[in-house]
Design brief:
This protein is α+β, with helices and mostly antiparallel strands and 363 residues long. The protein is 15% helix and 37% strand. The protein has two domains: 146 residues, Proliferating Cell Nuclear Antigen (Box); 173 residues, Proliferating Cell Nuclear Antigen (Box). Strand 12 and strand 13 form a beta hairpin. It is elongated, with a radius of gyration of 24 Å. This is DNA repair protein-like protein Rad1.
């Protein structure tokens, strides 16, 4: 009916926050989109061994309106009375990202010097759009099932409209992850994990092996890799570094400063054992962009060895004013089969012999 409202109408005060989240999962050409009253979920996968999703909560938008299309009455021979599934479709993720940065303002790294690119919230200047009062809006509409996804970007007096073709969704099973049966969990800074993955890339590795254990009552988390150019290992623990100064020579401020905990949370289902799980390095590396912009990351491994990385990313709030809010990007990885190959026990031996030795700092 022509009088029916669009299925989705969402208005954001800035396309940058949407671009930042969606770019974290831009390793696939198409994305599975799911619309709901809570927000938009974009999901991508690769060969059923890796999947990632970014959820755009309705709080990211200044205006968010979702109207589910009318449901046809069930047939007489159907006894399925369950609620209808969420509205879903496929879309070209690359085309959507190109649309969101059509004005060239959504990627701050392009116009900022290298030493200032680590700050996701650049300082406003006298020529910034928010200071000059320029209108910068992103409007997303979806009229009905099968219709294109319309993205309208407005900057000052310039308005650009793009209609992105939607495709019939291809349903694939999600990688199962048992949140109720975890073998390991830790929370740390996303930038620290990003630096560790970057360090390990120097060996051109094919496999990334993860270890976790308790050493003298202290948590120890390690990543190791072996490639054609050698091997490398990075360890994280909460043990303070050994001071080379005598107690009488230490400054009062240094003596009262608590040690920095690299691992905010550390949980092992069995503290007396060593957790060991391996994953394809090239897949883990595809989450590097999310690591680089995340404030924190939760690393979890269930009893089947499936790895879950949940990244907490701070983006600009819909109301603006310099405030920020938290959004999440999730990755899941299927483990490699442990074939007890060469070096299979090497990492465990290193973990057992490390016993808190802080002399092998990789950064």
């Amino acid at each position: 009916m022509p009088d029916e409202p669009p299925v989705l109408t969402a208005v954001s005060s800035s396309a940058r926050q949407l671009f930042t989240l969606l770019r974290c999962i831009a390793f696939a050409s198409k994305a599975h989109v799911q619309l709901s009253h809570e927000g938009l979920k974009f999901s991508v996968d690769e060969a059923s061994v890796m999947e990632a999703s970014a959820f755009l909560d309705k709080s990211l938008f200044t205006t968010y309106s979702f109207h589910a299309p009318p449901v046809p009455p069930p047939s007489a021979d159907s006894d399925d009375e369950e609620a209808t599934p969420p509205l879903t479709f496929h879309i070209s993720l690359a085309a959507l990202l190109e649309t969101l940065q059509i004005f060239g303002l959504t990627d701050p790294d392009a116009s900022r010097p290298p030493w200032a690119r680590d700050n996701p919230y650049p300082t406003s200047t006298a020529f910034s759009n928010n200071v000059l009062g320029m209108n910068n809006l992103c409007r997303i509409t979806y009229d009905a099932p099968g219709a294109p996804l319309s993205v309208i970007l407005t900057e000052a007096s310039i308005r650009t409209s793009c209609d992105l073709t939607t495709y019939q969704p291809e349903y694939t099973d999600e990688i199962p992850f048992d949140r109720q049966s975890l073998a390991f969990k830790t929370i740390m800074r996303g930038s620290w994990l990003h630096d560790a993955i970057l360090e390990l890339s120097s060996t051109s590795p094919e496999k990334l092996t993860m270890y976790a254990r308790m050493v003298r009552g202290k948590p120890l988390f390690a990543l190791s890799s072996t490639g054609t150019l050698g091997s490398a290992r990075v360890e994280f623990n909460n043990q303070p570094p050994k001071s080379t100064l005598r107690p009488t020579a230490a400054k009062p401020d240094e003596a009262n400063t608590p040690p920095v905990n690299l691992l905010e949370t550390f949980q092992l289902s069995d503290p007396d054992t060593v957790l060991r799980a391996s994953y394809k390095y090239s897949l883990i590396q595809k989450a590097a962009r999310a690591m680089s912009v995340a404030t924190k990351v939760s690393v979890r491994v269930d009893m089947q060895g499936v790895l879950s990385m949940q990244f907490m990313i701070e983006v600009e709030a819909a109301a603006g004013g310099g405030s920020s809010q938290v959004s999440f990007v999730d990755f899941r990885f299927v483990p490699l089969v442990d074939d007890e190959d060469e070096g299979g026990d090497e990492g465990e031996t290193l973990m057992q012999n490390g016993e808190g030795d802080d002399s092998h700092d990789a950064f």
